Automatic annotation (TrEMBL):
It comes from the Bacteria. It holds the Pfam family Isochorismatase. The keyword Aminoacyl-tRNA synthetase does not apply. CDD domains: nicotinamidase (cd01011). It comes from Afifella marina DSM 2698. This is Nicotinamidase. Its EC number is 3.5.1.19. Belongs to the isochorismatase family. InterPro entries: Isochorismatase-like_dom, Isochorismatase-like_sf, Isochorismatase_Nicotinamidase. SUPFAM superfamilies: Isochorismatase-like hydrolases. The keyword Hydrolase applies. GO terms for molecular function: metal ion binding; nicotinamidase activity. Keywords: Hydrolase, Metal-binding, Pyridine nucleotide biosynthesis.
Length: 210
């Protein structure tokens, strides 16, 4: 068991807790809204909080509706590799793209929007899905002197996992707060993501241990 006492170099990282990823939303994660009270309870324990927000233009390449004859959850070969086709979700300015209404947002020092380039999706908060186009987050975190990220939000096996893996890739310690996340679990994606995170040195903890 590691030391999960919180200091000035630690950051609570809240990923995509938006209406479209919660029950009733366009791409609802099962039990997704259950993360909100857990995350809200964690916020006062941290000096620093960052939120991310999926922010797609209409007609985004990752939407199944952009590809006539395609269905959600199929894949297609994008220029940057295999891309899952999703239901339209988190369209810029829509109610679905807004944060869950009960999520505390006032403590956030940064709200990072991602997925706003029409031709490329962005699961990770650090890189677009081509794995080379940076969001600038790593530089922000380094300049602020942060060393460890506690990751929460939606969904465990996509945006949270990809962000955790890229945090490690960029030299940050990464801790997944398991009860503050929920997964889509598409064709075994949760087990695969957990294995990849463990192999990369991501720690796993529950909120009670923080």
């Amino acid at each position: 068991m590691g030391d999960f006492s919180i200091g000035a170099k630690d950051l609570l990282f809240v990923i995509d807790v938006q209406n479209d990823f919660c029950p009733g939303g366009a791409l609802a994660v099962p039990d997704g809204d259950a993360v909100v009270p857990v995350i809200n309870a964690l916020m006062p324990r941290f000096q620093h909080v960052v939120l991310t927000q999926d922010w797609h233009p209409a007609g985004h390449q990752s939407f199944a509706s952009t590809h006539p004859g395609s269905d959600p959850f199929q894949t297609f070969a994008a220029e940057y590799g295999e891309q899952v086709l999703w239901p339209e979700h988190c369209v810029q300015g829509s109610a679905g793209a807004a944060f869950h209404p009960k999520l505390e947002t006032v403590p956030a020092e940064l709200i990072l929007r991602k997925g706003f380039r029409p031709g490329i999706d962005s699961y990770s908060a650090f890189y677009e899905n081509d794995r080379t186009t940076e969001t600038g987050l790593a530089g922000y975190l380094r300049e602020r002197g942060f060393a460890r990220l506690f990751l929460t939000g939606l969904a465990t096996d996509f945006c949270v996992a990809w962000s955790a893996l890229d945090a490690r890739r960029e030299g940050f310690a990464a801790v997944l707060v398991e009860d503050a996340c929920r997964a889509i679990d598409l064709d075994g994606s949760l087990d695969k993501a957990r294995a990849e995170m463990a192999a990369a040195g991501v720690s796993f903890v529950t909120s009670q241990a923080i």
